[in-house]
Amino acid sequence: MPDLSQLLLFAGLLIVAGGVAGLLAGVFGIGGGAVLVPVFYQVFGLYGVSPEVSMHLSVGTSVAVIVPTSLRSFAAHRAKGAVDHDLLRRWMVAVPLGAIAAAVVASHASSEALRGIFAAMALILALRMLFLSNRFHLGKDLPGEPGRSLTGFVIGLLSGLMGVGGGVFNNTFMTIYGRPIHQAVATSAGVGVLISIPALFGYIWAGWGNEGLPLLSTGYVNWVAVALIIPITLTIAPYGARLAHAMSKRQLEVGFALFLMFVSARFFWSLVG
Fold first, then answer.
1. pTM of this prediction?
2. How is the chain split into domains, by residue range?
């Protein structure tokens, strides 16, 4: 069992992570999960949580934090008038179904599998943003049905498996079909709402009764971490949204890509280390 100094250090790391996550939620239209998942994984490991469940707990706890963060970020972006409400209405069923499917998959997946998925998808998206952002386009507008709904389901599935708010995938989807990056970022905050709420209940169900979880956990959600981070992310997210609208398209893309590459490297290292 960690001593008091270790617990204070863990709390400090979580508080810092909450500030970074809130900023990223506003800047990139994400729920902050891409930074919270690796931090949670490290902190839970130091706390003595079994490696068999630490990744699942990290993803589930990240999803819980994303719920209020995405709501706050969505409200800030909607005030700017950049959200594609028509796309969100069309995804009201497909995206949540994907998020629920992710929780079902995670209940049977190993920790290594979840880390591998996280690392691989983050790297692919980063490379696309860095090298193909202005040269790789599939069309001038979003596809019709059933392709649009299928895409929403896949975004919900992959985001739920990674514990992210969907911005990493929706930003890519919208920009390769000619939508402005600022509209993609704003809409991604709404996608985060559609993903995080059903995924939260899914991860609670998936981890229900697991004996390897730390105190004050409900399924794969640890409420101590949630309580520490949510107030900070809610406070910081609107400042990130303001920063996003002050940046150029390329600045947003490069910053997002570099961040994803860092996260990918961290998880690949955990697999081989």
1. 0.81
2. 4-272
